[in-house]
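Thread: "does anyone have the structure for this chain?"

Original post by V.I.:
We have the sequence but no experimental structure in hand. Need at least a predicted one for the grant figures.
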Amino acid sequence: MKANVGGIDKTLRIVAGLGLVGASLAGLLPVWGYIGLVPLATGLMGWCPAYPLLGISTCGCKSET
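Reply from O.Q.:
Generated one for you, tokens below.
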């Protein structure tokens, strides 16, 4: 798995994921708020499984060709 999630994208994913999970834990959102685990995990790993399928990369890494 090559990193394909860049700095701002990674930060937004982590913040959004923590916000959704935190709101669910606090009782502000129903159980569907735990979907925030997905952006949280992809932000922490630096890899999004949908990006290769869509041909997207927000990482500033140079691609190996």
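V.I.: this helps a lot. The CA atoms of residues 12 and 24 lie 18 Å apart.
O.Q.: and Helices lie at 7-25, 37-45, 50-54.
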